Each structure stands twice: as structure tokens, then as C-alpha cells.
Amino acid sequence: MSKFHDARRVVITGIGVVAPGDVGTKPFWEMLTAGRTATRLISSFDASPFRSRVAAECDFDPAAEGLSQRQVRAWDRTTQFAYVAAKEALADSGVTGEADPLRTGVMAGTACGMTRSLDREYAVVSDEGRLWQVDDAHGVPYLYDYFVPSSMAAEIAWLAKAEGPAGVVSAGCTSGIDVLTHAADLVRDGAADVMVAGASDAAISPITVACFDAIKATTPRNDEPETASRPFDRTRDGFVLGEGAAFFVLEEYAHARRRGARAYAEVAGYAGRCNAYSMTGLRPDGRELAEAVSRALDTARLDPSEVDYVNAHGSATKQNDLHETAAFKRSLGPHAYSVPISSVKSMIGHSLGAICALEVAASALAIEHGVIPPTANLRQPDPDCDLDYVPLVAREAAVSTVVSVASGFGGFQSAVVLTEPGRRQ
Amino acid sequence: MTAELGRTPETGTGRPGGSLRPVVTGLGVVTPIGLGTERYWAATLRGDSGIGRITRFDPSGYTSSLAGEITDFDPARLPNRLLPQTDLMTRLALAAAQEALDDAGTDPRTMPDFAAGVVTAASAGGFDFGQRELEALWSKGGAHVSAYQSFAWFYPVNSGQISIRHGMRGPSGALVAEQAGGLDAVAKARRHIRDGTPLMLTGGVDGSLCPWGWLCMTRSGGLTTRTDPRRAYLPFSPDASGYVPGEGGALLVLEDPRAAAERAAPRIYGQIAGCASTFDPRPGSGREPGLRRALRLALDDAGIGPADVDVVFADAMGIPALDAAETQALAAEFGPCGVPVTAPKTMTGRLLAGGASLDLAAALLSLRDQVIPPTVHVDGGDARDALDLVVGGPRPARLRHALVLARGRGGFNSAMVVRGRD
User: Fold this and answer.
1) B120 and B252 belong to one structural domain
2) Residue B114 with chain A: CB contacts under 8 Å
3) What's the gap in Å between the CA of A371 and the closest CA on chain B?
4) Would you place residue B13 in the very low, low, confident or very high pLDDT band (cuts 50, 70, 90)?
5) Residue B151: which of A49, A134, A410 has the nearest Cβ?
6) Under 8 Å CB-to-CB from B122, ≥6 apart: which residues?
7) Chain A partners within 8 Å of B137 (Cβ)
8) Do B254 and B276 lie in a common domain?
9) How far is A23 from chain B (nearest CA, A)?
């Protein structure tokens, strides 16, 4: 199978995060390495009629983050998260003013787009579901921006003064990896030198909670919200809905070097596959996810034994964690039993399309700091999940190669390989 | 900068497939003027119009009332089990996918594992399905929301359902750039072929004709409020008043030319020769809008100059300022009236994420039959000094390269060049 030829390599030179807990990359990393959880009972609406009432919410005050009154009022929370995260990433990279706007692009990922605003505004124009012919008189002027999630990419492009390729990548719960790899493709192709790319989802709303209730994908552990997300644990019973955003500045390696930028990590390889099996279910053998991991390592020209850390999807559904464990064994061979694997969803929940961008941020920070974030709440290991999931406590380790994976509705399976800059020849 | 992006050397892309240009070996088309490629094409050459007053619901309470509806699609063409879990746009996409694969004479299930993938364009997901579930939630409670809602509305639903139905396990996903996404998805599929996946199904089929979707669309500010279908969507006309949305689109089978030759593919419509995307600077910045740059970069990518382009399928927004910007970009690149320009979408309306893919299909059919389909409902009179708009009927021509332009609301610009067979 193919390997990247590396005529143009891609590095991460800026990171921005909005995650459950305090806003910003630093508090995010402190929380993860402390093994602290941000899951709690839903506070943003009355969730009492629902089966699962737990979520990982962001304590996000848009005005305090510098958004204008218009942005606070007109933008969906997903766009607000994306904007704040992209702004932090740009500032972190120092690329503003140092890149040609014509060679700068934007890719945003999302699974649910502006669901929260659409849910809220639908309730108004339909008089809470009474009118099929929704009422024009009550439709706010921003409805079209909620209708098409590409409006989010447009706002970030203006922020970044980007006039290169722009758009939204959506593949459900793999969106956060797929958007980065698509952006990296554009840099490798020469269509851009700099891409501001990441993913955002803020879909904690009645329709989302009802959707996941309907298929019992989310945990009903409402009496223990702080420990409700239990990846790889015997007592796991579904994921905790989350929200958040992570954005990155991806930059062509020589471009970053020329301006003396710090690189967190190289986006060294990636691959996506599809299980063609079910819109929601997973084949127990993990074959397609394993194939994505193998091909991602192959494109990075790395051997499975060289992987220092696996950032797992680890959603804490019964099915996923078995599927994923099987996929790691299949793709990493004996090394699967010794490599540290962890799921940050145990702490910040599952923010759908955004989560794997947040996980890539955690992976890059693991390389930067030499610390592997733990899997919180893993107190009673599932005997069928028999790998090293770094339970409860963060671990210091030299990390120069990370594989981060995602698995989602639609059957999409994605893997990305990050390496310490300069590691690969 | 242009030179840097120009004819990329085989080794310069960092891809094993280098700069190879995939060929289109199959088409599947679903439109308001005809289901199926040949029916659509015959209707297009006749200049049929599929625009009319909305029948799916009563549009009288809304500022706009015209759309390009598909009224003759029979969902019984699909397996029963798929019906409760699919929005109309997904059913249409499944029909188009089947047609495209049949047309290409291939069945991905018989191919090696991971050798075929699906990348589609989306705009708003399965909105009609979504409205029904929102209604259930708000009027009856959360327990009444369908178990299928979690994926029936989401943006990559068409990719997921097509991959399952046809056993396509290669790289897959969806792109959203409003109307420009229909070309961006094809560009992404091309990249996957260059990375070693022999076959990709790509393009867009879209539609959101339900009251809730319609209310959202009227807030774009771009829809015409006229009620006479013949005087409604009039791009490049002084009488332009906005556009008419529609539903449908096209899916294309893209193949590595070597793989297509090896299996003796029954037909090759043409080659995806070049593509590029740009984003407009913030209005008022004084910087040049990105459409012309997108088209120039696409020509560079195809390794051709403006003189090689034989026809342009315009974005044709139907909004005076945007029509003027497109006219200007074309005149600057090709000279005034330097190339025939057409907008067959005047017959179907603008199909959201499906529109640009349908234009791509129309461009390939033009290359096949050496004829340019007309733009209807306008006479091109007032733009005559700047634009050679094909009106009044199809125009036979020697065609080797067609350029397709698409813009998405907010500032997205995409351009794609297709090359016919020698």
C-alpha cells in the first residue's frame, strides 16, 4: 500500500481548545493530566424527562472570551467555540501576518453543526411542535447560518484572513480527525501552506439527548455523574455526551521553519476506512479500524512497535471498547499488549465530531510534555478489554509517536499518526 | 504563486499516484426534470423547466413559493427496510448511486477490500426527516424520537448508506461548503484515488423541501420572491431577483485510469483534469474576490490555458451583484464573450450541495455529445457585450475542455476542469 513521499510535510504549530472545564489549552491539559472529570448533570436545560441526564458541559462565557454582542446573539454555540479555539491556535502559532492569505485555508469539522440553535428555533417557529407549517413570523434572520454549518468555516476564514481553500468536513464522530487529515492533504498537495483546521460541536440539547436515548448509546448513570464515563471498565454502560472544540494551525514544515515557529508534532500519517456494515453498529473483529491504523502507520513509514502511546476512541459503550481492543490487537500485534492506551472521554465526555480534534490536541501535548493522560474511572477492568489503558493516574513517558483513532456512525473509522517533530527521516 | 501551483510534477505531490487524473466511468442523476442520466440530458437539451409552485407543503405562508421539486420518484425502488430510516434526499442518493455503478458496469462488492470509497457533498443533512423528529420531540416527548434520527439527518448520511448498500469500505466522508461542496467532494475523491484507492463514488444529492427547511432557506436572503416560474430565476439578466432552490443532484464514479483500463470499463465520459478552491476576502477589504483565482488555479492544475476552455458552466447565482462578479471574472480571464457560458440549472433550480455535481455531469455529457445545453428563461441580451450566454436552444460545438464554477454562500469558490476523450 501507499506511503507518503513527503515532498511537503505538515506540522502542528498552534493549538486552541474549548473543553469541559475552563476554556483554553493550559487548563485542558492540567485537567487531563490530573485525571479530573468534568462530567455532571445537564445544567443548560431541564433534562428530567430523559433517560440519560449526564453531560460534560463547557463553562463558557462568550462575552468574557471577547465575542461581540452580535456574535453572542447571532452565532450558534458551535461557531462560538470554533472561533475562540481558532483564535487561541492562531495566537499560539504566531502565524498571523507571517503567511500569505492566498496560501492560507480553513477547514472546520463538525458532526452536529448548529443543532442547538436549530432545536431552540424550531420550538419557537413550530409553537413547540404544534405547527407542521412552521411560522415565518417567528423565524430569526440567522436561520440560514444554522441550516448550513459551512457558515462556521466562513467566520474562521475571516478571522484568519484566509483566502485559500475553505469548507467543512463532516463524518460524524470521526470528523475531528478527518478534518485535520483533509487539511493536511491540502498542504501536502501544495494548495495551501497554512491551514487553520479543527472541529467543534455544542449539541447538548433536547433533540440530541433524545436521539441517543432512543438507541441507548448514552449512559443512564444519573446518580453518579462525575464517574459516569467509564471506558474499558466492566461497569461501563454508554457514553457521556460532551461539547467542545479544538483547532490547530497546520503548517508546511519548511514554512514553519523559515519563520522559526515551534512545532508540537508532525502529522506524519493517516488513513480512513468505512465498515460498510451498519450506520451505528460495529463488527466485533475491528477489522476496518485496524486497517485504518495499519495504513496510517504505513503512510508514516513507522512500524507498530514504534508507537509510544495510543489515544483511544474509548467511548465507553459496551460494543465500542471491545471493537477497539480487537482493532488494536489486529493492527499492533504483540505491541498492543505493552503500549499505553487511554481514553480522555473518561474525563471530558464524547463531544461527537469535536472530540477527536480534542484528542489530537491531547496527543500533541503528550508529545510536548512527555506525559500520558489517564483513563479516569477505570476501577474494575473488563476482562475482555485486556490491554494497558493507563487507569486513573497520568504516566510520565518519552512520547515521540502517537496514534489517535476514532470510530463513528456511518461506519467511518479513522486513524492519525503524530510524531515528535524531526523524528522521522 | 500561480506557477508554484501549476503543472505539478509527478514527484511533487507527495502521492504515489502523483498527479494522475481520474476518469469518470459512471453517472447517476436525479433531478426535477428527469430521473436518470439520459432522461435528464434529453430534458436539458429540450430546455424543459422543473420549476414550479411547491406541492410538498403549502408555501403560502412563506416569502418564497417556487422550487425545483422531484415529483416522480418512487421510493419502492429501494429495499423496504431502508424506508423508515432515510430522508428523501438519501433515497434519491441511493438511486443515483445504483445508476452510477450500473453505468460504470461495476459492483464494489466484487472488488478487493477497501478498494472503493464514497465522498459526498452535503449542505444541511436530512432536514425533512429532522423536522418530523423535532415535531415528535416537542409535541409528544423524547421517547417518541426515532432510533434512526441520530444518523438519518447527519451530513455524511448519504456516504454511510451508500457504502453499506454497495459494500464500499475505502476512505469515506462528506464535505460541506454550501453549494461549492459539490465540486470539493469530487476533488477530495480525486485525492483518495491518487493515494491508491482505485474507485470512488462522489458528488452530491441534496434537498430540504419541508416547511422547516424552507423557512431556513428563505433566510439566506438569496431566494426570489417571484411567483411566475418563467420569470423567477434569471441569472445574468437585469431582471434577476434571486434564485430558486431545488432538490436532486448527481453522483459520479471516479476511477484510476489504469484500473478502468484493466477492467475494460464500458465507457469513459472524461477526466477530472483540474480543480481548485478559494475563499473570498472579507467584504470591504478592497481585495479581489476569489472566483477568478479559483478558476485560474483550476486551469493551471489541468495544465491548460484559457484558450483551451470550450465551455463554462457558470455558477449563475441570479443575484445581480454576484452575477456581475462572475461576469467580470470570466471576462477578465477569457476576454469579453471569449467563451460560451451556460447555466442549465435555470431548469432545475439550485440544488444546494447537489447542484455543482449535476453541472459536472452535464459538462461531461456535453463533451460526449459535443453540444452545449441552453440557459432558459433569459435571453442574455443585456449581458451580450460581456458574456456569450448560450440561450434559445442547445448549441453544437467542438468541445474538449469544460470548466464548472460553483460558489457557496459566505465566500466559497470552487472550479473544476473536465477533459473529454480525444
Assistant:
1) yes
2) 273, 288, 291
3) 32
4) very low
5) A410
6) A170, B155, B156, B157, B158, B174, B175, B176, B181, B204, B206, B353
7) 129, 206-207, 210
8) no
9) 27
Cβ contact B215–A143 (<8 Å): yes
CA dihedral B105, B108, B114, B117 (to 10 degrees): 80
Active site residues of A: 173, 313, 350
A210–B142 CB contact, under 8 Å = yes
B136 vs B133: CA distance, rounded Å: 5
- Express each pLDDT in B258-277 by its tens digit: 999 999 999 999 999 999 99
Assigned domain for B385 exists: yes
Burial (CB < 10 A; 0-12, 13-18, 19+), residue B221, is: exposed
The reply to whether B54 falls in a domain is yes
CB contacts of B147 in chain A (<8 Å) are 214-215
Residue of A nearest to B128 (CA): A132
Domains and CATH numbers, chain A: 10-114+149-419 (3.40.47.10)
Is there a single domain that holds both residue B83 and residue B144? yes
Q: How many separate domains does chain B show?
A: 2
Contact call for A134 and B13, based on CB within 8 A: no
Shared domain check, B88 and B60? yes
B255 and B306 both lie in a single domain: no
Residues of B in contact with A118 (CB under 8 A): 130, 134
What confidence tens digit (pLDDT) does each residue in A141-184 have? 999 999 999 999 999 999 999 999 999 999 999 999 999 999 99
Q: How far is B89 from chain A (nearest CA, A)?
A: 15
What b/e readout covers A24-55, taking b as 16+ CB neighbours within 10 angstroms? bbeebbebbbebebbbbebeeeebeebbbbbb
CB–CB of B211 and A162 under 8 A? Answer: no
| CATH number of the domain enclosing B287 | 3.40.47.10
> Is B156 close to A214, i.e. CB distance below 8 A?
no
Domain that holds residue B281: 2-7+272-419
- Chain B CB contacts of A1 under 8 Å are 196
Determine the distance in angstroms separating the CA of B235 from the nearest CA of chain A, rounded to an integer.
22
Best B8, B145, B150, B243 residue to mutate vs chain A (most A CBs within 10 Å): B150
Question: Tens-digit pLDDT profile for chain A (425 aa)?
Answer: 355 656 799 999 999 999 999 999 999 999 999 999 999 999 999 999 999 999 999 999 999 999 999 999 999 999 999 999 999 999 999 999 999 999 999 999 999 999 999 999 999 999 999 999 999 999 999 999 999 999 999 999 999 999 999 999 999 999 999 999 999 999 999 999 999 999 999 999 999 999 999 999 999 999 999 999 999 999 999 999 999 999 999 999 999 999 999 999 999 999 999 999 999 999 999 999 999 999 999 999 999 999 999 999 999 999 999 999 999 999 999 999 999 999 999 999 999 999 999 999 999 999 999 999 999 999 999 999 999 999 999 999 999 999 999 999 999 999 999 999 976 65
